[in-house]
TrEMBL record:
Protein name: UPF0282 protein K9W46_02975
InterPro entries tied to this protein: RibonucZ/Hydroxyglut_hydro, UPF0173_UPF0282_UlaG_hydrolase, UPF0282_hydrls
Family: Belongs to the UPF0282 family.
Provenance organism: Candidatus Heimdallarchaeum endolithica
Signal peptide segment: none
Length: 329
């Protein structure tokens, strides 16, 4: 089994997109990428936008080789929307390519355990009856020796009005991999119990949303308590996504949990580059022309600009490495 992150906070964007490749099949998880439109009262920095651009290209490359797509919920950092979104490099064609009729798609139930906003977005996917779509929650699918098992719906946050996701197991008979998606810690007992009962060899989780000012102190406490329970029973844990939206994430982890879990990028040996959390610093370091955003909106920022800024910041080689890994298959 090979696990290849494609886009995530440790690769400079908001995403949790990755490939899991076994001898039997190629599975693409949550094929989307986004950026926080405002953080620290600032727009995304051009370097973040470049990271999003190259991440989208990389995800599309992964789309072309994957047989299965797993869609854990319908937030834009996981779900590609069929509309033009300036920081996400999407449009109707990108959407159709990502969720093409040839793929088998295991997706979040669009009717049950879902909030209004996500239900509306889910329709984009489910309204095309030619798609090979299956509701994931609670189901098990077998492809050769590879078993894909989905948890029941688990809460995204402590407040269930914010929606639900599911957790996924990929077991190829040699290794058992568990991806939590957005379980915010995990904060719910159900999401925690699923992890503890499954005892995966490798766990990739999003961690508590401690960066978020509107998440209550109680929610953060519960999430860290659960993380402390999990840490003792699983050997390999990678943390990313929500947890890496604040620059002190390593210190916070050490303080609350007493261990240093690697970030998801480190599963392929790449040191995390957190850009959103460093937005203020990025704007201080590099001057951004006032007209940049209007040029971007008009489609006048070209490929050369993105490649140049990635190279100048010495991170273009990150996607080179990821693309080389994908190209092997
Ligand atoms: Fe989410
Ligand atoms: Fe997310």
């Amino acid at each position: 089994m090979e696990i290849i992150p494609l886009a995530c906070e440790s690769l400079g964007t908001r995403s949790f997109s990755h490939l899991v490749i076994t001898d039997d099949t190629k599975i693409l998880f949550d094929p989307s990428v986004s950026l926080a439109p405002r953080r620290f009262r600032l727009n995304p920095h051009p370097l973040e936008i470049a990271a999003s651009w190259i991440s989208r290209k990389t995800i599309l490359k992964a789309v072309s080789l994957s047989e299965i797509v797993i869609q854990t919920h319908y937030h834009a950092d996981h779900f590609t929307l069929p509309e033009f979104r300036i920081y996400e490099f999407t449009n109707k064609n990108v959407f159709e390519e990502t969720y093409s009729e040839e793929k088998i798609i295991y997706a979040k139930d669009p009717e049950n355990n879902i909030n209004y906003n996500q239900k509306r977005r889910a329709k984009y996917l489910w309204r095309n009856k030619k798609r090979k779509l299956f509701k994931a929650e609670g189901n098990i699918f077998q492809i050769g020796n590879t078993k894909i098992k989905f948890s029941e719906a688990v809460s995204h946050n402590i407040d269930e009005r914010l929606g639900f996701v599911f957790e996924t197991i990929v077991d190829d008979g040699k290794r058992k991999y568990l991806y939590t998606s957005d379980v915010s810690g995990p904060v719910s007992e159900k999401a925690t119990d699923f992890i503890l009962n499954e005892e995966p060899d490798i766990l990739v989780l999003d961690g508590p949303t401690y960066y978020h000012p509107r998440v209550s102190k109680r929610e953060k406490e519960i999430a860290f308590q659960n993380l402390n329970i999990i840490k003792d029973s699983i050997k390999k844990i990678y943390i990313d996504h929500h947890f890496l939206r604040k620059k002190n994430w390593k210190e916070k982890l050490e303080k609350e949990v007493g261990v240093k879990f690697p970030a998801f990028s480190q599963i392929i040996g790449l040191e995390p580059i957190i850009l959103e959390a460093m937005r203020k610093e990025l704007f201080k370091e590099t001057e951004v022309q006032e007209e940049f955003y209007s040029l971007l909106e008009q489609g006048l920022i070209n490929t050369d600009f993105f490649l140049k800024i990635l190279k100048e910041n010495k991170i273009a080689n990150y996607w080179k490495k990821i693309n080389e890994k994908i190209e092997k298959y």
